[in-house]
Automatic annotation (TrEMBL):
Binds 1 potassium ion per subunit. Its EC number is 4.2.1.136, 5.1.99.6. K(+) binds at residues 64, 130, 166. CDD domains: YXKO-related. Keywords: ATP-binding, Isomerase, Lyase, Metal-binding, Multifunctional enzyme, NAD, NADP, Nucleotide-binding, Potassium. Residues 230-502 form the YjeF C-terminal domain. Residues 15-220 form the YjeF N-terminal domain. Its cofactor is Mg(2+); K(+). Catalyzes the epimerization of the S- and R-forms of NAD(P)HX, a damaged form of NAD(P)H that is a result of enzymatic or heat-dependent hydration. This is a prerequisite for the S-specific NAD(P)H-hydrate dehydratase to allow the repair of both epimers of NAD(P)HX. Catalyzes the dehydration of the S-form of NAD(P)HX at the expense of ADP, which is converted to AMP. Together with NAD(P)HX epimerase, which catalyzes the epimerization of the S- and R-forms, the enzyme allows the repair of both epimers of NAD(P)HX, a damaged form of NAD(P)H that is a result of enzymatic or heat-dependent hydration. It catalyses: (6R)-NADHX = (6S)-NADHX; (6S)-NADPHX + ADP = AMP + phosphate + NADPH + H(+); (6S)-NADHX + ADP = AMP + phosphate + NADH + H(+); (6R)-NADPHX = (6S)-NADPHX. Belongs to the NnrD/CARKD family. Belongs to the NnrE/AIBP family. This is Bifunctional NAD(P)H-hydrate repair enzyme. The gene is nnrD. AMP binds at residues 413-417, 442.
Amino acid sequence: MNFNLCQKILSPQQIQLLDQMTIKTEPIPSIDLMERASEAFVSSFIQSYPRDRSVVVVAGTGNNGGDGMAIARLLVEQGYKVEAFVVGKPEKGSKDFQANHAVLKAYCSCDIIASKEDFPVLDSAVVVVDALFGSGLSRAVSGLFGELIDYLNEQSLEAVAVDIASGLGCDQVFEGGRILRVSQTITFEVPKYTQLLAEFEPYVGELNVVNIGLDLRQMEASITQRYFVTPQFITSLFRSKSKYAHKGTAGRCLLLVGSQGKMGAAVLAARACLRSGAGLLTTYIPQSGNQIMQIAVPEAMTITSPSLDVLSHSPDLDGYHAVGIGPGLGMEKETGMMVKAILVDSALPLVLDADALNIIARENSASLIPRGSVLTPHPGEFKRLVGDWKNDFEKLEKQRAFSREYQVVVVLKGANSSITDLEGNIFFNSSGNPGMATGGSGDVLTGIITAFLGQGYGGLEAALLATYLHGLSGDLALEHGSTETLIASDLINFLPRAFRKAQTRPS
């Protein structure tokens, strides 16, 4: 896998070095690189905000403030009504800030904020462009800057952050500092770690990453274990099917799914598995669910458990290329014994989801999970496995530690689902939308991952491909509906389009 096809998530120091190397090796004057970044920001901004919206730019006197000065000028050139405000003394600002500040005076008003009395009076229709602090912030925001952030937050206005919301660190939170709430962030070249974590959503809003042409060689040389998945990376993972493939070689998959009242989860996982390329699918289900499965998914074969309403007694796993366990399973005692027996006996990595994970947590049997297996918990299930956490930073460190300790791939589901591998690398998914927060969505993901494992993909490849396609299918479904109307079956119905789009290499 070529991780350089992902967007690397870098530290503030690495981002600063990337800027410096671009300036040195291109070569390009720093103020011209600032202009390039500002142009990229404005190109993205005008896609969201019409020219009849008034804009107020609030800026510091560092390089992020320099971006703000250039952005204000470019927006005026685009036909926007713009006012600019600078906190601090312009004559003490960075060299590039001073240059852009001097030019801006010919385009629009640019007032100095020296006290609370200088805060702008804002109309409710105004869009605020936040250029107070950038990615180099190293301390909590307080004083006059903090008071301005509090004031802007109280206005409940739409705000767009330049690179990162003021007060938010790239990879940390500064205790006691103020952070500006924004509706959108237009960030440069690479996403920042905090911008991908759920607890910081109020300070990120809609995230747009814009390319500003930073040095590619330095980017590739930057070492990280954090990545943001790109369409190009996903396309590179696909393998072509041999023209001599047949159903027996295209993936023989087994799903252990369902219980009384939860056969819907079994059906969703089975349909998703078949729709994702599995050559042959067998479902191991309770006797009471056999007719449901045979009618709902005629392409799937069935084996029934000795028990009427739950799964018990491990089936023979020989001959299968991949085994998925969990959707609709239930947590009866005999089901728990079956799961433990499979963990002990399986010669294959497994896909473990839902109640399979709850049983493992209950029985404290994580050490029995076969190496290379893929686990797909939602936060509640993951908490049962690893215990509670104080914040998202600690949650993700627990995820990385779990993957390393037990040598498994973990897909922690949610917005920007995080995927950790056996070495502790972490990948954030870039597809999907809030409409996918619906019952059965996780069952679909289990089916997709199982299908990829069955086709010979490794656990990490299967998890990355499946998670991205799962989200992309949701995005395509959303084009024909809304977040309120999306259901899990829609994800399966749009998988063919998602596969086609993801497999298409850019021309």
